[in-house]
Write a structure and sequence with these properties.
By secondary structure, this protein is of the alpha/beta class. It folds into three domains: 121 residues, Rossmann fold; 76 residues, no CATH class; 255 residues, Hypothetical protein af1432 (Orthogonal Bundle), CATH 1.10.3210. The protein contains 22 helices and ten strands. The strands form three sheets. It has a five-stranded parallel β-sheet with strand order 2-1-3-4-5, with helices on both faces. The protein is globular, with a radius of gyration of 25 Å.
Length: 485
């Protein structure tokens, strides 16, 4: 069944264009030009979403919102308000805050593309909405070759692909750059035979899907992860890998779409899954010792930082679910400031940069803070972690060369997980091997509060086994005072 949308706008030509586009995206659409007719429509039918121009008359947008809060109880539509610049007044935040209190989920400021509106509503679809809006067909459609830019696609390992009985989105195999073959069609019955043929007979390692379908991938796989974490039949490695895949695609999406409210909310759900994984797996420490299912991408790195930071925090008595989830969110976005760096700098490893390149690169924590600073859905602690994730306990970090207790404890944990993750990827080491590498390098160890480093070791091994043979901070409780001197 198609999702129903109510469009309310005094501009009939805009309504006509929007109606055509929404129907192409398989929505069922009702349109009205005034608030009174909108109220009648809402009394007589249920809608997935209501999109309303703030300038609507007879009745006003405020009257319609009050009517919805008072009278529409048997369903809960997503509400999108369209504003003109002049509707904002002198205080944008106050207008935004007032509308949110009145039940508005999203605010779009003109001018914008109609496709942007489609994207907003897709972000609010749950799994049941996606499935209900899917045109289902019996059997499988023929495979089709297409020419399309590689920029339109994102990939997953073929072994990591999951599907319902009906395929949620088109799936492709890459033949060469710009040339793909669609092997599974959205709405078709899922065919494991086709996948097995490409995997076993043709040696295909990756599947591809459109970046526009990334939201569907994230929501469906996040749903699967939630179910998997409650299962005692699935091993820790598979659960961790499922969470890794959905977290990486989420970070891809956030770097493209920006930190919109619906993206932040999706991130919080993933962070809750990270917490449930860390808390619920008694044998997780065994997995973390040998975990090596990664690729050298920014998104894989961010996931490793998230995973190991969460595991470290779990070792402290003062840890809490909220603390771990907030830190996990900061880990996902800790490098978001790199979005503002020139591309040529991102293509160079920090150790290979010249002095001016390095100075520019080291601005990314401050640039990250600028991106999240005015986002009221992100907590102050998350913002501090993003800003301080390269500050080190010995004062050798950046951007402000903070030292000791001047650094937020959670930020020092994230900086430890950040360096640790880089060592794993760049040296192709298992975590337990990377830990030994760090312990053998005092210049690395002194960057972190000794208490944090000890808890970090506890994630993997019994501290008693390493205290005699490795370099720990001079103020560590794990070495005798004589040896420390």
């Amino acid at each position: 069944m198609a999702l129903r949308v109510l469009l309310i706008d005094p501009d009939e030509s805009w309504l006509t264009s929007a109606d055509e586009l929404f129907k192409k995206h398989l929505y069922a659409v009702d349109t009205v030009t005034n608030g009174k007719d909108a109220q009648i429509k809402m009394m007589n039918g249920k809608y997935f979403a209501v999109v309303m121009n703030y300038a609507v008359k007879n009745h006003t947008a405020n009257q319609v919102l009050k009517f919805m809060n008072r009278m529409v109880h048997d369903y809960d539509p997503r509400v999108v308000i369209i504003l003109e610049e002049e509707d904002l007044g002198d205080d944008d935040d106050r207008t935004d805050e007032r509308l949110k209190k009145e039940g508005v989920d999203e605010i779009l400021i003109k001018p914008f593309e109609l496709e942007d509106l489609i994207t907003v509503l897709e972000g609010h679809q749950g799994i049941s909405d996606i499935v209900n809006n899917l045109p289902k067909r019996k059997g499988q459609s023929d495979e089709v070759e297409v020419d399309m830019s590689d920029d339109n696609f994102t990939k997953i390992k073929i072994d990591d692909f999951y599907s319902l009985k009906s395929v949620l989105y088109d799936i492709y195999v890459r033949l060469k750059s710009g040339r793909y073959i669609k092997i599974l069609h959205s709405g078709d019955e899922f065919s494991s035979e086709r996948l097995d043929n490409y995997k076993n007979e043709k040696g295909v390692e990756y599947l591809y899907f459109h970046v526009k379908d990334r939201k569907k991938y994230i929501k469906f796989n996040d749903h699967l992860v939630k179910k998997a974490l409650k299962s005692n039949k699935m091993d820790s490695h598979k659960k961790t890998n499922m969470l890794k895949n959905v977290a990486e695609k989420f970070m891809e999406e956030s770097f493209v779409e920006g930190l919109k409210p619906v993206i932040i909310e999706q991130g919080r759900q993933i962070c809750e899954n990270v917490y449930n994984l860390i808390e619920g797996e008694e044998s997780l420490y065994k997995l973390l010792r040998n975990y090596q299912d990664f690729d050298p991408s920014a998104f894989s790195h961010a996931y490793l930082v998230t995973l190991f930071s969460s595991a470290i925090i779990m070792q402290f008595e003062w840890q809490s679910k909220t603390m771990i989830e907030n830190t996990a969110l900061a880990c996902m976005f800790h490098d978001i400031g790199k979005m503002k760096l020139p591309k040529d700098i991102l293509e160079v490893r920090p150790e290979d940069m010249n002095e001016s390149q390095l100075a520019e690169y080291q601005k990314h924590p401050e640039l990250g803070l600028e991106i999240v600073q005015d986002n009221r859905t992100i907590t102050t602690a998350v913002k501090q972690i993003i800003h301080q994730h390269h500050e080190y306990f010995d004062g050798s970090g950046y951007p402000n060369a903070l030292k000791g207790q001047s650094i937020l404890t959670l930020a020092n944990i994230v900086s430890l997980a950040d360096i640790f993750s880089h060592i794993i990827v760049e040296n192709n080491l298992k975590p337990i091997e990377a830990l030994k590498f760090m312990l053998g390098n005092p210049e690395v160890v002194v960057k972190f509060n000794s208490m944090i480093f000890e808890k970090f070791i506890n994630v993997f091994v019994d501290p008693g086994k390493v205290k005699k043979n490795h370099a720990l901070p001079s103020n560590s409780r794990m070495v005798s005072s004589k040896k420390a001197s």
